[in-house]
Amino acid sequence: MIEIHRRCRREIDDLPVAAREDLADAVARLEQGHNLSMPLSRPMPSIGAGVHELRLHVRSGAFRVIYAVVTKSGVVLLHAFKKTTEKTPQRNIEIARARLKELRL
Question: Could you tell me the residue range of the domain that residue 68 belongs to?
Fold first, then answer.
C-alpha cells in the first residue's frame, strides 16, 4: 500500500509530467513488493531507518522523492523536490525527517 503525505501530494503535482510518469512506474514496482536499488533508488539512513530517495531524471532536470518503507508492503511518500545541487540540501533532509516523525507519533 502506498500513502502520500498530504504536503508531498502537492509537491508531486508540481513535478513535470515526465517525472510524474517515472514516479508512477517506480511506485507501481514498490506496490508489487520489489526492492528498488541504484540508480533508481538510494537509501537515506541520515533521515531514518527504511528511508530511501527515488532518483528521477527527465529532460527538465533531476527530481527526488523521499519515501519510507514502513512495513513490508507499506510505503509512504514524504517529500518531492527538484534537485539543483550535487548534495541533497539540508532543508530537504529536515523536511523529510519532520514528516517521518509525524508518522511515528
Answer: 2-103
